[in-house]
Amino acid sequence: MKSISLQKQLILRLLLLVTCLWLLGLFLAGVQLKRELNKTFDSALQETAERILPLALVEIFNREEAKLLQQLPALSAHEERLTYQVRDADGEVLLQSHTARQKSFTTPLRNGFDSQDGYRIYTVSAIQSTYFIQVAEPLAKRRDAVLNTLLIMAMPLLLLLPLCLLMAVFLVRQVIRPVRQYGTQLAQRGAGDLTPVAHGNLPHELEPMRQAVNQLMRRLQSALEAERHFTANAAHELRTPLATMMAQTQRLEKTLNDEASRLKAGQLVTTLNHLVNLSDKLLQLAKADSSGLLTDTPQDLSLLLSLIADEYQRSGVQDLQLQLPQQAVKACIDADAFSILVKNLIENAIKHGEANSRITVQLSVKGELRVVNACEPLNAEQLKRLHERFFRASVTTPGSGLGLAIVDALVKGMGGQIQLLSPASDSDKGFEAVVQLPIQS
Question: In this protein, which residues make up the domain named Histidine kinase (predicted)?
């Protein structure tokens, strides 16, 4: 299921809310603006009619024929916004503006406002309702005025929308930052670090989640510690009786005269050796699963690796070639954990490598540890399962199937990375383990 970005959801919804509120505000402003402009235009229309009517009556009374239609000429060419007509009580047009002939005022001759055929018309009478003047204004002009005013109002707001977007992104990121820091704090923890997470700046609404995570981590830590203690105690308790049984079996083997009995006693010694090795591996696995793999004091990995390799070289078990950098490689890794890691890699190379073949152990200045041996290459399925506990790629080779599982647990607990290759680099055969350790820069 695809995850949903909380930051993206907040930004989109905030912008949608701001846009809807902006449109609603613009609509309400338009309604109010239309109402106010209509009042203003109606007032101007009424004042125009009342001012023109006396002048028109003087013009009518001073001419020779009062009933004759007179059209006043325009002083200059222009678009006439307001047109008017003066009529008598019978509706006969006596005087009109220069473009009024194109219009037909068919509204009743009564005082007041009226709207008809796309015009707003104001009618006023004089001399006991014997003369009437009607002044008309196109409603389209009013609509244009409202739209132009709204456009002028909307332009600054449109320019502010990108600023609103930037501010929304900034503010949401500020709010989400404690959540991201909380997630980063969890992600940066090692595999064995199950200590409670500090409060930090986490929002109050997410405090129950933090408490639930801490409770879960405490329960998980208790369960893992109980399992580790059981494994370590069981392995430790087995060592003494196994050592006793080993000594008694070896003494018994020397006292037996029958060849068949000595053969059976030897097989028993081999089995006991396997159990002893298994108990040692279980102790190492308990160490690998613990949280004490890192230290506050940096260790010189070159020196530790040199001591471990010297132990194998003096034993003469295998041809071991060690390659170390000239400068020290320091890391805050527990010395015992590093020793277990290297020894398991070398023992795995010895067990599964070809007889009398060379094993190469190399440590780079960047903290990259390589252990290479010569063997037949493994297939992809075997290579994929090597880190599983008790998995053995070859059932004919003695072992517990825990060596590389211990290595994998140690590397993860140290905060490093491991890569298993077969065939080895620059070869068509062999096996290579590449471990990237977290070193001090």
Answer: 233-441
CA distance 205 to 6: 14
Q: Which residues pair with 115 in a beta bridge?
A: 120
The two tokens of residue 271 are 């089995």
Q: Distance between CA 21 and CA 164 in Å, rounded?
A: 13
Q: How far apart are CA 188 and CA 212, in angstroms?
A: 19
Count of other CB atoms within 10 angstroms of residue 368:
17
* Distance from C-alpha of 297 to C-alpha of 332, rounded to nearest angstrom: 6
Pairing assessment for the beta strands 417-421 and 431-436 based on DSSP bridges? antiparallel
* Amino acid letter for position 354: E
What is the topology classification, in CATH, of domain 293-436? Heat Shock Protein 90 (3.30.565)
Q: How far apart are CA 431 and CA 425, in angstroms?
A: 9
Segment 314-349, tens digit of pLDDT: 777 667 888 888 888 888 888 888 888 888 888 888
Q: Which of 122, 82, 88, 140 is nearest to 72 (CA)?
A: 82
Listed in order, the ranges of the chain carrying CATH 3.30.565.10 are 293-436
d(CA 383, CA 22): 61
Whole-model pTM: value is 0.49
Instruction: Tell which CATH architecture fits domain 189-291.
Output: Orthogonal Bundle (1.10)
- In angstroms, the CA 146 to CA 349 distance is 87
Task: Report how far residue 288's alpha carbon sits from residue 224's, in angstroms, rounded to the nearest whole number.
Answer: 12
pLDDT digits (tens, 9 = 90+) for 99-126: 765 455 778 888 888 888 888 888 998 8
- Cα-Cα-Cα-Cα torsion 399, 402, 405, 406, nearest 10 degrees, comes to -110
Residue 323 is predicted with a pLDDT of 87
Task: Identify the CA nearest to 82 among candidates 143, 142, 135, 139.
Answer: 135
